[in-house]
Amino acid sequence: MKSGVKMLFTSDVEASLRQATVLVNTLPVHDPDGVDSLSTTDDLDVFLAEFPTQGSRDDPDRELVRMRSLRRHLRRLWEVESEDEAVEIVNEMLRRGRALPQLQRHDDYGWHIHAASDDDPLWSRTEVDVAMAFVELLRADEFERVKRCVAEDCEAVLIDLSRNRSKQYCDTGNCGNRTNVRAYRARQAETQAIDLPG
Q1: Pairwise CA distance, residues 38 & 28, whole Å
Q2: How far is Cα 43 from Cα 58, in angstroms, rounded to an integer?
């Protein structure tokens, strides 16, 4: 994909990292109201419209169950204590998907690596693509970009693709704005308390 903005990773890697983040954040623990954002086949269709995957499609109900299950496996990548633990999880994902790296070119991506067959089921293809993206992240010594939202009331995850690794808030719950509003109100309350006579 050609554009004037230089990317940290190739566009297919960044797309897979974003896909993993959004998929994990469909878990109900990431929603303030505890809503599961991937509970119906329609939800899955919406997700796949945003993140098209080339895996074979056959049984929407089974695909939904497997994609919902995949979220918890992927969440582990945000819960590890070290890169070594992340490597174990990524290697496990690659083994489970019987990864066989090969060069391909399609859409606007140019030459890039796929490690799953086009015939593999959707969930397997998704898992292997995400694992390959994490391979690139780890090889580039950039695992610190795998973060959890710093908002006190949020459990969402994020991939920080900013140049200076400064992203702290997820994209799911408007956490950055909510935190800033809370801080502003706290400062205002403190200022008013100081100004009170007595």
Answers
A1: 9
A2: 16
Structure pTM? 0.83
* Closest CA relative to residue 145, chosen from 89, 83, 88, 84: 83
CB 149 within 8 A of CB 179: no
Cβ–Cβ < 8 Å for 145, 3: no
The strand pairing partners of 105, in sequence order, are: 111
Q: Which residues contact 13 (CB under 8 A, 6 or more apart)?
A: 112, 132, 133, 136, 137
**H-type helices in 51-121, by residue range?**
60-75, 83-96
Quick check: 21 and 158 in contact, CB under 8 A?
Answer: yes
pLDDT tens string 48-59: 999 988 777 889
